[in-house]
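Blinded run. Sample ID left blank on purpose so nobody reads anything into the name before looking at the predicted structure. Input follows.
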Amino acid sequence: MEIWLLVAQLATLALILAVLYHPLGDYIAFTFTGAKDLKLERGLYRIVGVDPQGEQSWGAYLRSVLAFSLIGVLLVYALQRLQAVLPYSLGLPAVPEGLSFNTAASFVTNTNWQSYSPEVTMGYTVQIAGLAVQNFVSAGVGLAVAIALIRGFARRNTGTLGNFWVDLTRGTFRILLPLAVLSSIVLLAGGVIQNFNGFTEVTTLTGGTATVPGGPVASQEAIKLLGNNGGGFFNTNSAHPFENPTPWTSMVEIVLMLAIPFALPRTFGKMVGDNRQGYAIVAAMGALFVVSFAALTAFELAGSGTGTELAGGAMEGKEQRFGIVGSTLFATTSTITSTGAVNSMHDSFTSLGGMMTLFNMMLGEIAPGGIGAGLYGILVIAVITVFIAGLLVGRTPEYLGKKLGPREIKLASLYILATPTLVLVGTALSFAIPAVRDDVEGTSIWNPGLHGFTEVLYAFTSAANNNGSAFAGLTANTPWFNTALGVAMLLGRFIPIVLVLALAGSLAAQSKVPVTAGTLPTHRPQFVGLLLGVIVIVVALTYFPVLALGPLAEGLQ
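Blinded prediction complete.
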């Protein structure tokens, strides 16, 4: 029965995404290639002093990204520290300094890691003016960087990549905002709450009392998923019935997480003038997604031990209304994109099931990955793949008519190395520094031993890859984790962006080389297979030793 449910859910999801692929991908391409600005946009440009016709070099584009993000960090931090005097604070106090820094870094980097219980920590003003705003603009930043890289491949002999402020504005107002409004209405119809009721005392069936939180949930839930953000309005995230009431709303939320990332390869093909390139990229993304979902579901259905076998699978930490397949599909989607939302507790998955959620993030979240970040991540790996193929046949590598010389390969290689370095160094320091190790083992990890090691590894993998999901057995609201994970989130977001924009600038400055008999076709199944091989081998060689110390060792016990 579960196998048929798996097939049915996967087929339904694939059908919906296939229907959206052309129109949504074409609309995104049209948004970023059109010359006409909307009246609202022109007014905004005048207010902030931006010339929408002015093109930026990769360096200027990067400075704009960093400046905008720095302002975002400062504003979100200030809102949290001033919460006690803000309207609609619900009587909640100011957020402590370390947690404020961690949360500001988290939401500005599109990570949405939460070391706190949202409903009893953040008032409505912070939620709306701080966190929800960043849900829009942080997703807009990732989308803008991906478009800049596409322009790098598409343009010739130019030193410019477009205008960041125009790209951010168009992505936010023309794509994210209208889709979020429509999605909010659908979620409202499905039972997701939307109010400003604060905390309500209710009488239970036994005659006791309970405090029920309210809030503007549907509006934040929509962009949380559509923008691959993931931060929940409630502590249990999309496992909470106020955020995700029914199996069909859960499927809607899965579609929202995947819609834009899976449509962006179409945008890529459209903007470079060869739709076949988009089909090749989306085929690689889809293959990785299906394999990951099947493996995670198999591990959870198999379970481990008598109890789980009698129950028909590992149901610990899962909602009955979603079941195992509904939980594993959501978990796969959440970790293979940069969303990080959960409708079940990943810490309660089987050892090998939890390893799959880790592995999805370690892939670089490229199948299809976060909004914008997934596309530019897989394109960087495609550059590496073309380079390896060039070495095999003894030719100078070319991708989409651009030569890949030493500069391009160095930038792509540094991109591949940046995130694993942050993950492994952060995890190692957590156990190597005596004061930190004593705190971790004494107060932070509820499950010591191999599982406790996996919890810390998961935290740094999630932070550095800007995912935001967590193994719930780790208490991360400590001075060390607030600081270390905040730094990992910032570096994990902006180091890759620096390298991607530098690569885009280098490509845009080149002329296009003609296609010859020796040019590697990058739209055929052979290239898709080679790309998948490079992705798996690079990840396996990088992370296999640390996986062997954690979830693999635990799974073999």
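Unblinding after everyone has recorded impressions. Residues 15 and 186 are 19 Å apart (CA to CA).
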